[in-house]
Task: structure prediction
Amino acid sequence: MKEVKLFIETQTMGVERHIYVGWLNEELPSGEQAWQQVHLSGGPGNYSFYACTVGVFSSQNMRHKTDYSLGWFTRTQRDAMLDIAKTVPFVRKSYSDNCQTWMSRYLMLLAAHGDLITAEVAQTALNATLGLADSNLVPTS
Result:
């Protein structure tokens, strides 16, 4: 089993806060970590989704992210999470939707699946991504 987390970029450099769901795939000999990422990539007018994305991050990179645990999941459950992500609708050329909109849809679909996350976990994770003060999630980092 692996812990699945929601990551929120804390350093925005003038752009929207990027968010994604991920889990640790491997600790590399260099000390970097390879994380499976589930997210919408790109920017306004040019979004895309790739089902199998791995990001390699140093400890310095990870300091610029806040993460929230969505729980511990088996390989079969994580595969289901990837399959669900492939079904999340988005408009590639949208200027109004973004990765946060996509993540909101994704979290609700995970909750609707029934055995992945609860609606409460989905809602508190969504609140955290939007920076709402009533979020009950406690950062794990």
